Amino acid sequence: MRIPCPYCGERDAHEFAYLGDATVTRPDPAAADAAQAFHDYVYLRDNPAGAHQEWWYHANGCRQWLRVARDTRTHAIAAATSARVSGEPA
Amino acid sequence: MRYSFLSILANGLSGQKGWAPAWRDAAPKPAYDVIIVGGGGHGLATAYYLAKVHGIRNVAVLEKGVIGSGNAGRNTTIIRSNYLLPGNEPFYEWSMKLWEGLEQELNYNAMVSQRGILNLFHSDAQRDAYARRGNAMRLAGVDSELLDKARVKAMYPFLDFDNARFPIQGGLLQARAGTARHDAVVWGYARAADRLGVDIVQNCEVTGFIREGDAIVGVETTRGPVRAGKVAVAVAGSSSRVAGMAGLRLPIESHVLQAFVSEGLKPLVDGVITFGAGHFYISQSDKGGLVFGGDIDGYNSYAQRGNLPVIEDVCEGGMALMPRLGRLRLLRHWGGIMDMSMDGSPIIDRTPVPGLYLNAGWCYGGFKATPASGWCFAHLLATGAPHETAGAFRLDRFRTGHLIDEKGVGAQPNLH
């Protein structure tokens, strides 16, 4: 698997570290339903078979966080954009 | 037909013409008492114990492909009960006890071989952690023994004891652990369940649930609708997909785990050895191939194949442990899809949806659990209450804070 880093170009997956699902966002700790919202945020996942938005960190490269669109059935990567552009990992 | 020395002899003398298929390839009936989704080891074991222990025989196992073609046929066949935490250890020990009587119980040769598992330690701190685990096992009535370097050397003289980075100081041995023939476990449970009247329906993919009000009362399949009093899901790897059809989100991510087998060798490794300084474990199959593996790839995947960085990592671990592996050629490697739960422990529980029961989240340790998983899931389905050894495997433990974090790494599925 090779990930097209917007800074470094296409690089081997071993240069990257994986964080996980990029669609979950950290809830407001002051909200009334914070306990429920944090449970969902920390533990529950859609875990789709198919298109998946995910965070990767280019640890052995430009050290930027990337939002990668990847198909979990084929590992084909449709896009990789900087987290600075798309919103940073929550 | 009951398998015995006499049946082998009789068929040997009559040209092997007397063998019947080991189970019927059933077509789905319109309704059952219990439907089990997933014809892997866990689903078939559940069906068997439902029929055998609880007398519930109007049961179907629905499998989208052929039985045993998922993770039951992709694991590295290790059975053990060397866990630390009270939520886990009694359950895996119950599984170990069921393994010990499995072949007589099923009248099927599952090649259960109690050749022992040795977890190596490489530092003082790791020895202390293994001593703690060994003591916890003994408190739960399970055999364990802490071996020093000399005793490990007597067992496996070929290991790299004086490795500059990870010298071997000793190991924690569970002598009753070992291996079993994974396919034979599937076939044995299928045959035994079939003999008790369970329908095993292959090439029958569940495509949705039939609901009446809130409750689930059956499944839609590629071979038509099938109704049931209870629907039990045992599809580890695809649990999120099936639960998603019922509107549930699970505390699970699907990840790919790779495994490897070398070319066949004469007997070399007569037990199971695990490297303590990385994630690498190895045993030898009865055909002679060295079977080994390591970590999951670490990213969400349903692809049943992995990538090169983990292959490299596994091989580095193997070389650090056993340098002579470097002269071997790899015969095959493959991937399976793991239900990685958020605390590294499984789920055997009812769901918030009436009529739907869940057996999931086995991470990369599902094979050894097969008998107890089936036993406990059948107990839950038949009695409505969790089995005494599986009471901690609740779906709501993530909400209540009763996590079973055996590895102590928190809510990161790719670290468990």
UniProtKB/TrEMBL annotation, chain A:
Q: Where is the signal peptide?
A: none
One protein family per Pfam: SoxD
> What Gene3D superfamilies does the record tag this protein with?
Folate-binding superfamily
Q: Which GO terms describe its biological process?
A: tetrahydrofolate metabolic process
The superkingdom listed in its UniProt entry is: Bacteria
In alphabetical order, the GO MF annotations are:
sarcosine oxidase activity
Tell me the protein's name. N-methylglutamate dehydrogenase subunit B
UniProtKB/TrEMBL annotation, chain B:
Where is the protein situated, by its record's location annotation? Cytoplasm
A cellular component term, taken from the record's GO annotations:
cytoplasm
Q: What class of enzyme is it?
A: oxidoreductase
Picking any one GO molecular function of the record gives:
sarcosine oxidase activity
Q: What is its main location?
A: cytoplasm
Ranges for domain Rhodanese come to: 34-78
Q: Which cofactor does it need?
A: FAD; FMN
Q: Which InterPro entries match?
A: FAD-dep_OxRdtase, FAD/NAD-bd_sf, Rhodanese-like_dom, SoxB
- EC number in record: 1.5.3.24
Question: Pfam families of this UniProt entry?
Answer: DAO
Any GO BP? tetrahydrofolate metabolic process
Please give the superkingdom of this protein's source: Bacteria
Instruction: Tell me the keywords, alphabetical order.
Output: Cytoplasm, FAD, Flavoprotein, FMN, Nucleotide-binding, Oxidoreductase
Its UniProt entry gives the catalysed reaction(s) as: sarcosine + O2 + H2O = formaldehyde + glycine + H2O2; sarcosine + (6S)-5,6,7,8-tetrahydrofolate + O2 = (6R)-5,10-methylene-5,6,7,8-tetrahydrofolate + glycine + H2O2
Family according to the record: Belongs to the SoxB family.
This protein is called: Sarcosine oxidase subunit beta
Q: Which organism is it from?
A: Ancylobacter rudongensis
